[in-house]
UniProtKB/TrEMBL annotation:
Listed name of the protein: Transglutaminase family protein
Domain Transglutaminase-like, chain residue ranges per copy: 171-241
Pfam families cross-referenced by the UniProt entry: Bact_transglu_N (PF08379), Transglut_core (PF01841)
Stretch list, region Disordered: 284-306
Length: 306
């Protein structure tokens, strides 16, 4: 469950919103059920698919309100990652051959993901950091795994240390941030050497500390990165946790950067001077023990409010 609640100190006469809260149907991920609810009930509501194939929802609340709540609930079945992709010639070959620019028409669709953003994120600091990873002739999967581990070791996770507007260069300088920052650092490094990389958002089913029960709402929305391989495969990796993305990750949306797929954004009309946002996320594996014993796929229940 993903739940987001906005509270205002004055009446809001109109709220427009767009959200990315419905998980994607993918070869290794099947959406069993998904539901997004808005309170107060919107006067206008529509769903669609964006240019990257993500499910998005639009709403317009015209009734006066001082609180707006968006709640998403979904049940998703996720398979373990395909080991064949990691052992493919594209993954084991030199990273230089994984550049879309050298694969001709085969890499045409991925070329967009190799381009820098505006304002540019690829700086000298990014190039220097990537240079220690992408040495000549190194296998692509080896380099990506090394990049994942280096970011995990070199950066400190600290909630509240950055904002969505914080630049990659600033994160590199401070060596701290949150999952969105670490994903964006990885993406900038990959693009600095000509590789295609995308930003992926979703959820991660996390375990509680040993001896403690799970705490409802203790999880958070998550983000990671993915690199393109010739053959049109993508390998997703999670620098925040120093691991490749697996069956505990639920993919909601992807794009070139966070700005392409924020969980929720919108515009309000109000005289309010102050507002507060409360977000809670709970990701609960269903029948986790059975899945672990059999090696079969796991079902994950994701509920959210933005």
């Amino acid at each position: 469950m993903h739940r987001t609640c906005y509270t205002y100190d004055d009446v809001v006469s109109s709220s427009y919103g767009r959200c990315y809260l419905t998980p994607r149907d993918l070869p290794g991920q099947r959406v069993i059920s998904a539901d997004v609810r808005i309170e107060p009930e919107p006067d206008d509501w529509s769903t669609g698919v964006d240019v990257y194939g993500n499910s998005d929802s639009y709403f317009h609340v015209r009734s006066s309100h001082d609180e707006l709540t968006v709640t998403a609930n979904s049940v998703v079945e996720v398979d373990p990652p395909d080991a064949g992709v990691l052992l493919s010639p594209a993954a084991l070959g030199p990273w230089e051959l994984a550049r879309p620019s050298v694969t001709g028409l085969a890499g045409a669709a991925a070329t967009e993901f190799a381009l820098d953003l505006y304002p540019p994120e690829i700086t000298d600091a990014v190039r220097d950091y990537a240079a220690g990873v992408f040495t000549p002739g190194r296998p692509t999967i080896e380099a990506v795994t090394d990049l994942t581990g280096r970011i995990f070791r070199d950066f400190t996770y600290k909630s509240g240390s950055t904002a969505i507007s914080t630049r990659v260069d600033t994160v590199l300088e401070r060596r701290m941030g949150v999952c969105q920052d670490f994903a964006r650092v990885a993406i900038a490094c990959l693009r600095s050497v000509g590789l295609a990389a995308r930003y992926e958002s979703g959820y991660l089913a996390t375990d509680p500390p040993p001896g403690r029960e799970r705490i409802f709402g203790a999880d958070a929305s998550h983000a990671w990165a993915a690199v393109w391989l010739p053959g049109d495969d993508w390998v997703a990796f999670d620098p925040t946790n120093d691991k490749l993305v697996d069956e505990r990750h639920v993919t909601v949306a992807w794009g070139r950067d966070y700005d392409d797929v924020p969980p929720l954004r919108g515009v309000i009309y109000t005289e309010s001077k102050k507002s507060r946002i409360d977000v809670s996320v709970d990701v609960s594996p269903i029948d986790e023990a059975a899945g672990r014993d059999s090696g079969a796929e796991s079902e994950v229940e994701a509920q959210a409010t933005d």
